[in-house]
TrEMBL record:
UniProt-listed Pfam families: AUX_IAA
UniProt KW keywords: Auxin signaling pathway, Membrane, Nucleus, Repressor, Transcription, Transcription regulation, Transmembrane, Transmembrane helix
InterPro entries assigned to the protein according to its UniProt record, in alphabetical order: ARF_plant (IPR044835), AUX/IAA_dom (IPR033389), PB1-like (IPR053793)
Protein name: Auxin-responsive protein
Length: 120
């Protein structure tokens, strides 16, 4: 049996795969609660993630709704330092780029805690 020798592109691809597999864990922050680490790779999509976060932080019955004002908002920070709403990117991309998730109360959404002002 003949095996191909790895070339630069194969090694690069394998390094990316190894990096992705190692960094599925991210921090979840909510004011007044202890931050938690979760394995993003264990969820199949945003719906499952949102349910797990609501259960983890005792927010059942208070679903996150990006379209309405006065609701909890789930935002995330990527590895470039940008803040985006959870759900803005395709799930497969989100899993790779998420660094931390922030759960903001309706009052925190209106506070200018992030560059650029409020998140409404």
């Amino acid at each position: 049996m003949i095996f191909a020798q790895p070339n630069d592109s194969t090694v690069f691809f394998l390094n990316i795969v190894a990096w992705v597999l190692c960094y599925y864990v991210c921090q979840v922050h909510k004011r007044g609660a202890i931050s938690r680490s979760i394995d993003i790779g264990s969820f199949s999509g945003y719906g499952e993630l949102n349910q797990a976060l609501a259960h983890m932080f005792g927010m059942e019955g208070q679903p996150e709704d990006r379209q309405s004002i006065g609701r909890w908002k789930f935002i995330y920070q990527d590895y470039e330092g940008d803040f985006l709403f959870v759900g803005d990117d395709p799930w497969e991309e989100f899993v790779i780029i998420v660094k931390s998730i922030w759960i903001l109360s309706p009052q925190e959404v209106l506070q200018p805690m992030f560059p650029g002002g409020d998140l409404t």
